[in-house]
Design a protein that fits this description.
- The chain is mostly loops and 67 residues long.
- The chain contains two helices and two strands.
- It has a two-stranded antiparallel sheet with strand order 1-2.
- The longest helix is centred in the middle third of the chain and has 6 residues.
């Protein structure tokens, strides 16, 4: 069964961050480096995340699907 972002979009249910959370990097090279090492095919998805305050780190973690 195909699950994850390809089938369910940005659902926190499938987040691998733990506790139903998802993370988003400010720079694409951060996301790329978190892909499985040695994988022949690496896929990245982008998402627009609106935050009242910018994250203090280079990664923003969200714990729900919508604002």
């Amino acid at each position: 069964m195909n699950s994850g972002i390809a089938r369910n979009g940005n659902s926190s249910t499938f987040g691998r961050c733990g506790g139903g959370r998802m993370w988003f990097a400010q720079q694409s090279n951060i996301s790329y480096n978190y892909c499985t090492p040695g994988a022949v095919i690496k896929t990245m998805y982008t998402a627009d995340v609106i935050s009242l305050t910018p994250p203090t780190a280079s990664v923003l973690i969200v714990n729900r699907n919508e604002a």
